[in-house]
């Protein structure tokens, strides 16, 4: 019996080996392309429209790597940077393109425009591959002599972008119900020299729980209005002024207003922020607080001065994405009232088809001076309606992904 099983295994291996070789060496076209887009790309649409190339799932198998990053623009749209890198026979043939969108475009218009920029970036590789005889040029543009000689129209909004939002939610069970309402508004104006921003929100939440003996009602309110103005000083320096007012039952704030001047230094020029950035920010915050209940220090009202120093880094590269932030802060009247916050994540491509992601946030807290005096009720603790004392908070996450199988399948099938 053992000999029979062994012979069957040898026969199966012999028959399957040619299929294995074929699977590892499929027929290929002139160019293999790998598109790495962190977010904001319709990959199925790209594969479906660019049918004249082999789309591979791993950058190590590609003749051409297209690395696409996205960052928010001042008009509410986005700026995509497309970086093309040639490998093998295309070694040294590299280039970068930019694609800009605006908030009035539909998703279909955005993905179509991005597709055109990708195809424009691929043109040098197609020419070098010998496909020049198969390439046709179509330009959807006609020169208008009058427009070419006229003066560009002035932006009637002067770069200002406005937005409003609102949402509501109601849930009910036999013994429990909850309602939440949120309204917000924003205004932004971004130019090369200045960035102006204002945000306002009104939030209301109420939870009701009925037990056999009594009813628990818990309410949470949070309203705020923030504004900021940031001035570009040089390619590496910026200065800002931040201010705000707020009412927050969770943080025991009946009324609070603050003003914060800040200074930022960027190691890399700001124009490189779409791919890499390391910044250092110093901020001094002056605030005045009126409390709903007296604090653990017996304060009904107090003025505070707080300083903070933040080191932040972000890299978007073909090997993955990295973000890390370290912030240290303290109250000036008592340096023992301080906080240290470490926040970050990293996505790493380990090898072909395998990537790993780590994320973490750790806070060491010694500055909860707004806590109300007295004991918190059970419903406040369970429903998180009031902040409670703690020395630290931690959060860790780990994720992995592994893809294997055919690396050259460019077929798109969206049935069902």
Runs in which pLDDT lies below 50 for 5 or more consecutive residues are 13-28, 145-153
Q: Given the structure, what is the number of helices?
A: 5
String of helices and strands:
HEHEEEEHHEEEEEEEEEEEHE
Helix proportion:
10-25%
The oligomeric state is: single chain
Give the DSSP E fraction (strand runs of 2 or more residues): over 45%
CATH architecture of the largest domain: Beta Barrel
Walk me through the structure.
The protein has 416 residues and is mainly beta. It has two domains: 23-133, TolB, N-terminal domain (Rossmann fold, 3-Layer(aba) Sandwich); 163-402, Porin (Beta Barrel), CATH 2.40.160. 15% of the residues lie in helices and 50% in strands. The protein has five helices and 17 strands. It has helices at residues 2-24, 43-49, 107-128, 145-149, 378-382, and strands at residues 32-37, 54-55, 64-72, 78-86, 95-100, 160-172, 176-190, 194-210, 215-232, 237-248, 253-266, 276-291, 301-317, 320-331, 334-351, 354-365, 392-402. The strands form two sheets. The protein has a twelve-stranded antiparallel sheet, with no helix packed on it. A five-stranded mixed sheet has the order 2-1-3-4-5, covered by helices on one side. A hairpin with a 5-residue loop joins strand 3 (64-72) and strand 4. The radius of gyration is 29 Å and the shape is elongated. 11% of the residues are buried. The model is unreliable at 13-28 and 145-153 (pLDDT under 50).
